[in-house]
Amino acid sequence: MPDHFPPIQRNLIQKDGEDRNPAVQTFGRRFFVDQTVTELLIELLLVASSIKRVAGEQVQEFDESLPFPPLAILRDWPEGSRFEYSAKARLNLKLFSFLGASKLETRHESHRQHYRKLIQDMSTPQKMITSQGGDRYEMLKAIENLFLGFQGVGGSRTWCAQSFIPLCREMLAAETLWNETQAKRDEVETWAEVTDRLLRFFSLGRHRFLARGGELLYLQICNALRQQKEHVLQWNSCANMQIPKAECDPAMLHADLSERINAVFDECPSAVGKLAEFIDSGIEKETAKHSDGQAEDRRFTVCGWCPTESWREGYLFAMEVRWLCQAKIDPVERLELLETACALQVLRSLGAQSARHVSWVKDRSASAAPLGYVITLSDPEGANDTVKQISRRGVDTIQRMIHDAIRNPAVLENFPLQQSDDPTWTEEKAYREADRRYGHKLFLTLAKRIGMIVPRKGQGARFVLSDKLLRCLVLSLVPPGKRITYETFKHLLYVRHAFAVDSNRIGAACEWYGTRRLSTIGTESDAWLVNMLETSGMLIRLSDSCSLVKNPFEGEGET
User: Fold this and answer.
1) What residue ranges do the domains of the chain occupy?
2) Cβ pair 285, 118 in contact under 8 A
3) pLDDT single digits (tens) 283-307
4) Residue 559: predicted pLDDT
5) Which end of the chain is more exposed for a tag (fewer CB within 10 A), N or C?
6) Pairing of strands 151-153, 163-164
């Protein structure tokens, strides 16, 4: 079983909970198939923007202005201490923004009453001043539509289970679920009854939608930032990652990434954040008081854990997030690219961690990328039939690798499945759930969601790149405003994402997939990538044999 970060004591692991699942034991707590790409980013930024603490024999707390714990804490983590964060529920803001657009059957009478009370309180002359005698209710409707336009995910859910796109700190909220059955049983009628026993009628930590995937990505970055510079330099040299020497300093990355993430939060006009805060806690304070607690009794959520050996892919992810945060691009587009980067990181994490725990994968390491596996990208149109067939074989081989990784006998040394108190819990059932929710089915489903595997339904699944994926890769691999050669770009795709696009690397991929190396692939196997780069305006042709890939967006703060 992999060692954990944070270093959780073995006896504190949830022996009858989600930790018992062999896929969770392998990859960390947890990547989950039902969590959307948007929710991965929301949860990552939610942790980064919340008050956090290290809770053990002594409690060390730091505020939301620090996206990551100080280096001194990361590098000397108290043994057995939990990492916790206090995320606000923002029930008033969600109610105001989403109730009117939610399904009628999900609107409990107490919710309707409180919504009307919010509207009434906001419309008083003391709370709202309109120009030239404008209609206050019309103004409130416009504000409601403004925040409804920021809806990120969950439009078919109850209003409280929906989420905003993470434009600013004031719009990031914890997952909140309404317990309809309990409310009916207790015959709840008023909002005051709800808030008096809020945890009876609302669930604030079930991780059904914000299912810990973003937490796990956050912990991977923390795990990377706590490494010593010498370890990073050695890995960079051995794996030929081509990370500039200055970028191999975790202390520098820690400081700069923290600054960039804070800058992203500050991009949204301050008036929007102030308005959101006013709606949530400036009009009616009791709801926030009961849902979030006061300074002395804040509610904290305990983070999960990630494998300590995953720091390498965590370091790559931290660098990519940094470049995406630094580029001068539209704030909404930046969030879309960060969502894609989160999804790519989940895929990379599943692949790299699996490669560490499968014997036949280790035997084929000479034919693999430094991450331990290979993904053959075919052209989106499927014109090259040979590469298309190789890519299909790659999809099957990657799934087999993940399937075999969670069946490594070492995974069950700590928690043999037969120890469960559940009489229906069998080894077959455990692995079936692991495959479907946390293993190779997760890899396949997530890759299809972001357009990296086509077709989405039917046979013949193969790896491809979409325009959106390519844009994310260029902006996250090439520093803002800089250029690299096309050959270097292909090398970075290979060493940092295990993507093979040219005949040489695809030939090696054939061996990793368990077949003989093919010599009939042709020298134009990557012509489609050149065309995509050129069409997107990110390729400069210097000659027939030399081209440059450029990140056209300057970095924030650069001249």
Assistant:
1) 1-12+29-63+73-295, 354-550
2) no
3) 888 898 888 877 667 889 999 999 9
4) 39
5) C
6) antiparallel
